[in-house]
What we know:
Helix content is 23%, strand content 25%. The chain is an alpha+beta fold and 194 residues long. The chain is globular and about 75 Å long.
Amino acid sequence: MATRGGVMGVSSFPSTPSCFCRNGRTSCSTLSLQIASKSATSRRSITCFAVQESSTSTVEEKKVKKVAEKAAAKPKAAGKAPAKPLPQLMEEDVIPSLKAILEADEDITELELSFQDNRLDGSFKKKGNPYSFWAFFPSGNLTGPKGFSLSSYGTEASTVEPFLVDEKKITAKHVVFWVEKRLAAQGIIPVWKE
């Protein structure tokens, strides 16, 4: 009985053993293996032996073909729609949602929202006091650097603050939420809606 070198993984689960053979000519997954392993420890090395007793197939090829046919018969799931370019995302998703939120406040008048030059600009008056904000995306996408600035009572813009820093996958809903959150933090729009 001859033995061949290789690596064998043995599991305690009730399944066929798996192994990886060095020479690649023998496929261990189709062989019925009865494992007799011996360990010999000598000078910092452990040697394991496996004996192959039979080379007959324990799995019929019909079963393998049926599994392959079932796997091939499954239709592929539809892939995700490609991401919208930033201007299209702002015009179709962000601006309408943000406009609806701000128009819900009866005290807000003269609302203007626009997106150009990778910048979302918003201006309005609340109880006669002018406010303006902008969120900018200098790289032209949602994954690059982003900033936010707000000015109130007709003053110059405030310090530019980081915007959407902690979000991993940014969507239009995130942009709307964080603009709304910044305006609520300044007391411009209510934090809680009734």
